[in-house]
Amino acid sequence: MSFTPADEHAQTPVSSQTPPGPKQFFKSTLAFQRMPLQFLADLVRQYGDISQFRLLTFPVVVINHPDYVQHVLQKKNTNYDKDVFLFNTARTFLGNGLVTAVGGESWRRQRRLMQPAFHRQRIAQMATLMTEATLQLLKHWEKEVEEQRVLNVENEMTRLTLQIVGKALFTMDVSATSDAFGQAYAEVNAALTNYLRFPLIPLTWPTPRGRRYKQAIRTMDEIAYAIIRQRQQSKEERSDLLSLLVQARDEESGEGMSDRQLRDEVMTLLFAGHETSAKALTWTWYLLSQHPDVEQQLHRELDTVLGGRVPTMEDLSALSYTRMVLEESMRLYPPSWQVMRQAIEDDTIGGYHIPAHTIIFWSQYVVHRHPAFWHHPEQFDPLRFSPEEVKKRHPYAYIPFSNGPRVCIGNSFALAEMQLVLATIAQRYRLVMDPDARPVEPVALITLHPSHARMHVQPREIG
Ligand code: HEM
Question: Which residues of the chain have pLDDT under 70?
Answer without folding.
Answer: 1-15, 463
